[in-house]
Amino acid sequence: MLTPVRKTAAVVKTFRYNVIVHWGDTDPAKIVFYPNYFIWFDESTRLFWDSVGLDWDSLGKRYGVLGLPIVEAQAKFLSPSKFRDEIVVESRITEWNDKTFKISHAVLNKGQRAVEGYEIRVWAVPRPEDPGRLKAMPIPAEVKAAFE
């Protein structure tokens, strides 16, 4: 008789970024102006990488990476956040590909999901023949391992 194989889910690190909604983050109705969520997604991504010892500057020095450009971004707005709300952006890498990764974000307001979104970013280095342009390269295994 065969013994069933148990699959264990990989533990995925989650980064939490606390944000207080300021007056300048809102529209005339005092509701967060939607582009600010993308700013907070970007900030959370950078801080997440910092938290595992892979800040943008060290990526450049160690791997020649000029950043992690966004090639796709999306958000779904579930409920409004307003002036003076204290929200939390939860970020986790939900997919690794050879040269790209997907980082998913959930914005929580008073414990409830207010926004869900993601970014797909590319591991990019300058092209040797044209340093003004970028070229996608494989993401090193050690970089991926930092988020496990």
Strand content: 35-45%
Numbering strands along the chain, what is their spatial order in the largest sheet? 1-3-4-5-2
Q: In whole angstroms, how far apart are the ends?
A: 34 Å
Write the element-wise H/E pattern from the N-terminal end onward.
EHHEEEEEEH
The major β-sheet equals:
5 strands, antiparallel
Q: Tell me the number of strands.
A: 7
User: Would you tell me the overall average pLDDT?
Assistant: 93
Helix content: 10-25%
Q: Spans with pLDDT under 50 lasting ≥5 residues?
A: none
Shape: elongated
Radius of gyration: 18 Å
Structural class: alpha+beta
* Count of helix runs: 3
Structural overview:
It contains three helices and seven strands, in the order βααββββββα. By secondary structure, the protein is α+β, with helices and mostly antiparallel strands. β4 and β5 form a beta hairpin. The longest helix is centred in the N-terminal third of the chain and has 17 residues. It is elongated and about 50 Å long. It starts with 14 loop residues before the first strand and ends with a helix. The relative contact order is 0.21. The mean pLDDT is 93.
